[in-house]
Write a structure and sequence with these properties.
This protein is an alpha/beta fold. About 40% of the residues lie in helices and about 20% in strands.
Length: about 300
Amino acid sequence: MTRTGIASFVALAATVVLACQPVRAQDPDVVSGTLARVKQTGTVRLGYREASIPFSFLDRAGRPMGYSIDICNAIVEEIGRTVGRDDLKVDFVKVTSETRLQAIVDGAIDLECGSTTNNLERRKIVDFSPMIFVSGTKVMVPVATAWRDFRDLKGRKVVVTRGTTNAQALKALDQKFNLGITPLDGPDHEESYRMVAGGEADAFATDDILLYGLIAQHRSQAQFKVVGEFLSYDPYGIAFPRNEPEMRAGVARAIRNLVVARDIGPLYAKWFERRLPNGERFNIPMSPQLDEYFAVMGEGREPN
């Protein structure tokens, strides 16, 4: 990203910091909406993904884990403080890229803990936490594929995962440069990967970090490579129901506290720089724009 791009993220971070100024925790006796339901039932429902490594995926025993899951657990702790309960339980609910946001709208989950881009269109139906990661659309192709730039997609069959923003990026690129791409869609990231592995598609376009995760998970570094420049920039956030200021304040407090307590760095390193429980390893340092974002968010702040 250019200096201008980083500056834009820093400006966005400053806006988030202003929006996340210390907020007094809501009186546990007068909470409403999602928080009222959580207080009554003692359960927070977390939407998880099966193959969004390292954000949200299953360990070898089939239990959800990942960077976004850990952040959601911190949010659950803050929700407990907000509603005056220290005995909250977590109920994990499987979602896909296609169903995740509707699950929030329908009230099936309280937090979506995956790899979800925060954009204007999505903010019309759900709300988002402060940014937790920044990624962008890139392309996975077989290692034997010759690649100079995105024009090498001309005439290719390219799969994207249904319900993702990557489809919009690919469509815009195709229309602008008249590439004649044949778009295909997979129901989830794993199936999109398998379509390339099985020869049904020539390439898979999605967020670069997810492509690296799938290649690492399948130990297929000798088969596939991630190529090209970013076709989009995508800030990730934890999604939750709209028009709930108490919930929004609690989510913001939880993430700000991770930043101010300097827990966000070790949490990032756990999932992106060290070997994962399933054996994969990314060795991806925090990007300059995310580092700047967290620095601005936590500058001079104290946890509540």
